[in-house]
Amino acid sequence: MLLTSRQGTHLAKDDFCLSCHHPRNVLEDHIHPPRALKLPAYLMSFHDLGIPRSTATVCVTAFNVVDARAVSVLANTLMKPVGASYELFRFPIFTFLITHTASGRRVLFDLGARKDLENTTPAIAEDVRSGLIVMPIARDFVEQLGDYGVQAESISAAIWSHAHFDHIGDVSRFPASTDLVFGDATPRKTRPSHPQAMLMESDLTGRKLVPIAFDDSSLQIGGFKAHDYFGDGSLYLLDVPGHLSGHICALTRVTPTSFCFLGGDAAHHVGMIRPTAALHHSFPAPPALLASTKHSVALTAIAPSASIDTDTDQPFDLAARTTPLLDVAEGGYYEDAPTARASIALIGAFDANPDVLVVLAHDESLLDIVGPEFPASLDRWQERGWKERAVWAFLEEGNVAFRFGDTKEEV
C-alpha cells in the first residue's frame, strides 16, 4: 500500500519512523506523538512484533498430504464447545518445503502422517483400527515432493513442529544426510525400550539430531523465544508451548517485509485464535458478514465470553466479540491447556498484523484460498490479497471450517 504525505510524496511502509510510525524524512515538522496514541491499522507492520530487519528471504511451498473430506478425529479432543452436529473434525495436513533463497538449501517444516499408521505406536494403530482416527494417505509427503521434482536427497533438514504422529511422518525415508530438527523439550523416549513412548526407535536413529535450545537465545519475537535458523533473518523457529512439550512454530520471511507464521498445532481451528480486538481493528469484518452471523452463529456453539452474555436470546454480535469463538479442549491432545491459551493469545498479535499470514497445520478455511490445487507457493500471499480473504472466511456458512450453527449435515 502506498500512502501520500501532505507534500504529495508517495510513501512506502519503510518510509515511516520506527519510533512513532509517522512519515520520516518527508514532513518538516515531524515530531513524536505520545506513546499512548493508538496507531491506525494501516501503519501496523512487522516491526510491531519485534522482527529484526533483513533482506534475506526463503521460498515457502505448502503441500496437503490428505484429502480433508476423508479425514476425521473427535473434535472434543481438540476444541470446545462442540455442537451436536459437529462431533467430527475434518481437516487438511499442511506440510512445507522451505528453500533458502541465497544458498538454495532446502528444509521441511513438518512431514505429515505416514501411510502405514498401523506400524506406528500401538495406541495410534488401535485408534486407526477402531475408527477413532480416520486418516487415509494416498501419497505421503516424500512421494508428493518427488512428484514436485524434489528428491529426498536434496533436503538438508526436516523440522518437526512437535512429535505427534501426523507431523513426524516417516523420517527413515530420508537419507542420513537429512538432519532432524526439533524443540529441545521434545520427548525423545522411543519404543520398544519405553512402551508408553509416542516415537519409534526409527524416528530418531540414522541421522544427526539437532535439538533447538531456546534458553540459549536472547532473541524474542512477538513474545516467543526465537532461534534464527539460517542466521540471516529469513527463517525463525519460535518456542510456542502448550500443545505438546517441545512444540515450535516457524516464521518465514517470504519478502523483506512479509512473513508466513507456520503454526503447527498451536491451535487446530482458526476459531481458536479469532476474533480479537486487534483483528477487528486491522481487518474489520465486512458488513454482510456482520449481518449474516447474527443468524448463522448459535451462541451455544461458541465459547463463553466475559464481556458477552451467551445465556440470552440476543443474536450473535460479531463486532462486539473480541475473544476467540473456540477454546482449547481439556484432557485431549493438548498437554497443557492454560499454557496453550497463553500461546494462542500471543499468536493473536501475529494474526492481526497485515504483514503476517498465519497458517495452522490443519486450517481447513484456507483450502480454497491457498488451494484448491497443491503444492502451492505462499510467497506472494500479500499481493494476492489472501489475508483479506482468509481472516473471516471461517465464519462464512459455505466455508468448510464453519462449525457454529445449530445443525450441520455430515458429508
Automatic annotation (TrEMBL):
Residues 92-306 form the Metallo-beta-lactamase domain. Signal peptide: none annotated. It comes from the Eukaryota. InterPro entries: MBL_superfamily_lactonases, Metallo-B-lactamas, RibonucZ/Hydroxyglut_hydro. The lineage of its organism: Eukaryota, Fungi, Dikarya, Basidiomycota, Agaricomycotina. This is Metallo-beta-lactamase domain-containing protein. Keywords: Hydrolase, Metal-binding, Zinc. Belongs to the metallo-beta-lactamase superfamily. PANTHER family: METALLO-BETA-LACTAMASE DOMAIN-CONTAINING PROTEIN (PTHR42978:SF5), QUORUM-QUENCHING LACTONASE YTNP-RELATED-RELATED (PTHR42978). One of its GO terms (molecular function) is hydrolase activity.
